[in-house]
Amino acid sequence: MFGEKDYQQLLLIEKMVEDLNFDIEIIPGTLVREEDGIAMSSRNAYLSSEDREKAKVLYRSLRKGKELFESGERRVSILIKAIRDNMESVNGVLIQYVEIKDAETLARIENVSKPAVIALAAIVGLTRLIDNIIIGR
Questions:
Q1: How far is 93 from 17, CA to CA, in rounded Å?
Q2: Which alpha helices (H) appear in the chain, and where do they start and end?
Q3: What is the pTM of this model?
Q4: DSSP letter at 110?
Q5: Domain limits of the chain?
Q6: Residue 106 three-state SS
Q7: CATH architecture label of 36-135
Q8: Cα-based distances in Å from 30 to 7, 8, 85, 132, 133
Q9: What is the chain's alpha carbon radius of gyration, rounded to the nearest angstrom?
C-alpha cells in the first residue's frame, strides 16, 4: 500500500513493479487530510502551532490552482504563478517546487488537457512538507 500523498513516488513504484514484472499489487491509499486541511503526515508533529498555521497555505494554494483550472484556465504557467503567489503571501514558507504534470506519466505539460497533478513542496519552520491535488478528473 502506497499513499497518494507522495503521488510521484506512488507512480514510480507502480511503474517499477510493472517494468520488473513483479507479482505485487500496489494499492493506492487516498491522501488523508487533517481537519485543518493539512495533508496527514508524521512530519506534522514537528510543526509548532505557529508553523502549523502557516502550513495551511499549502492546501489553500492547491485549491486556488484547482479553482482557477475549474474556471477555465488551462495554461500551466498561469496556474503555477497563482499557486506560488498564494504561497508567497505567508511569511515563513519557503517554496521548494510547484509543478503541474500529466497525472499518468508525470511528463511536463504546458496546458492541462487531461488529468494532471499539481504537486508542491515547501519548508515551514524546520519541516519539509509535500502535498498534491489532481485536476481534470
A1: 35
A2: 7-19, 49-70, 76-88
A3: 0.92
A4: S
A5: 36-135
A6: coil
A7: 2-Layer Sandwich (3.30)
A8: 10, 14, 27, 11, 11
A9: 15
Three-class SS state of 107: coil
d(CA 50, CA 46): 11
Alpha-carbon distance 87 to 85, whole Å?
5
* Lookup: cell for 25: 499489487
C-alpha cell at 59: 492546501
Residue type, 110: E
- The residues with which 69 forms a beta bridge, in sequence order, are none
Helix-strand-coil percent breakdown of the chain, rounded to 5?
A: 40, 25, 30
Digit-coded pLDDT (tens) for 9-58 = 889 999 999 999 999 999 998 999 999 999 999 999 999 999 999 999 99
Reading the block at residue 55, the C-alpha cell is: 502550513
Contacts of 33 (CB under 8 A, 6+ apart): 39, 40, 59
